[in-house]
Write a structure and sequence with these properties.
six-stranded antiparallel sheet, four-stranded antiparallel sheet, alpha+beta
């Protein structure tokens, strides 16, 4: 949680403003969005005002309500789309609470169906998503370094360096880094 005298992170501020804008565009009150997402009104309000940095799980739930992938949402708060995105310019987003760092590798563009994301989890980090942002979302998970446990529905997968898992996501998923080292992986996401 941010201190009162601390300025919000610029990315959190843009993200909060976009979340508020989406809610208004849908004509929903905070209460209606809370009912649709299962997230408390106070948490939604703090996220919209950038008083707190939203977690990956919270953003995933909101993306589900708004019918977007997380990359689409994050690209909406980035600069003008470009076909080339240099490594130094690829936006990073960090969920400090879970030990997850997400790099948007693909140049942002809301009209495209595929995107690449680099994920990093610290040893022991565990992220659970209760639903995909878009049902039937296709994911390809390629581990570059370390090990990753992926749970999709009732199926568990253990991936080591070089392994690649392809799946369509219909229900809950969980990404866990069993350690002892951090994991770095590429996530290719394709809209159905």
């Amino acid at each position: 949680m941010k201190h009162e005298d601390e300025a919000p992170d610029p990315m959190d501020a843009r993200l909060g403003a976009r979340l508020a804008e989406l809610r208004v565009q849908h004509g929903w009150s905070l209460g209606e969005l809370a009912d649709r997402s299962g997230i408390s009104r106070s948490t939604l309000s703090r996220a919209e005002r950038a008083e707190t940095s939203p977690t990956a799980s919270l953003l995933n739930r909101l993306c589900g309500v708004y019918g977007r992938t997380m990359s689409q949402l994050l690209s909406e708060v980035e600069a003008v789309p470009t076909p080339l995105l240099r490594a130094a310019d690829q936006p990073l987003w960090e969920d400090r609470a879970s030990g997850f760092v997400r790099r948007s590798v693909s140049p942002p563009h809301t009209g495209l169906r595929g995107e690449l994301v680099e994920g990093r989890l610290t040893a022991g980090a565990d992220i659970a998503y209760d639903r995909p942002p878009v049902p039937g979302l296709e994911q390809h998970i390629w581990v570059l370094e370390g090990a990753l446990d992926v749970m999709a529905g009732h199926t568990d997968h253990h991936l080591d360096t070089g392994d690649c898992l392809r799946l369509r996501v219909w229900g809950p998923t969980r990404f866990r880094c069993p350690g002892p080292d951090a994991v770095r992986y590429v996530l290719a996401v394709v809209l159905p």
